[in-house]
Amino acid sequence: MDTPYKKIKIVDKKQETKTVNYFVFDKNIDAKPGQFIMLWLPGEDEKPFSIANAIPLELAIAAIGPITNKICDLEKGENLFYRGPYGKNFRLLGERWLVIGGGYGFAPLRFLIKEGLKKNKNIKIDCVIGAKTKDLLMHQVKHKNVKTYYTTDDGSYGIKGNVLAAVQPLLEKKDYDCIYCCGPEKMMYSVALLGEKKSIPTQLSIERYYKCGFGLCGHCSVNGWLSCYDGPVIFGSDALKLKDFGFYHKDRTGARKQI
Description:
Elements (H helix, E strand, L loop, with lengths): L5 E10 L4 E6 L10 E5 L5 E5 L7 E5 L3 H7 L6 E8 L9 E7 L4 H13 L4 E8 L14 E7 L6 E2 L3 H10 L4 E5 L2 H14 L3 E4 L15 E2 L2 E2 L6 E3 H4 L8 E3 L5 E3 L1
Parallel strand pairs: 7-8, 7-11, 8-9, 9-10, 11-12
Antiparallel strand pairs: 1-2, 1-6, 2-5, 3-4, 3-6, 12-15, 13-14, 16-17
Helix pairs in contact: 3-4
């Protein structure tokens, strides 16, 4: 029987943060930074995950719900299934980047940084990684062209405050060709406003609740813009035109809820 799902085996698994497990699988996929897959645990459900690396396939999965908790309980040698990749990817623009990741939203940005450095050795990157506490911070990309700034809401590591505590001073001191951002939507909304104010192209990864993953069901619509199909990557100038962006989302039932 034909099926869109492909089997993958866990070949490595590491605890990256208090909630995030980093999985390495036995398959290479043709994917670009910003795209996602639908990961299926047989007998349970499927969930979308941003791709953290393509060769081999790697995923950063936060244990924050019934399905993700069960996936994070799996060990090396066990199997999962996926379909995809889906969605629009980040575009590599210029040579001076500001990359901003909030919480486990940094996973696809780490893939982006690696791809950018691979394609252009002259890229210089300032990277801001934020989390509520030190034990929730994701790992940086170690490279001579990457300078990393950390923020924590409680001040347990790096600069005290959210990512804007580091981002705003950087934007005052430096010029950038592009800003890349993924994380909580309210944070991305603030970053999009800053990018617009500074006239810097800003690319965001907006993830909503996905059911189909390829634009059929419309569940992930943000004022007509389909996150799974038209995105998840969108320029900040376009995102700011979506009246629900940064303010409302839909839950699994389709009900519109305030963020």
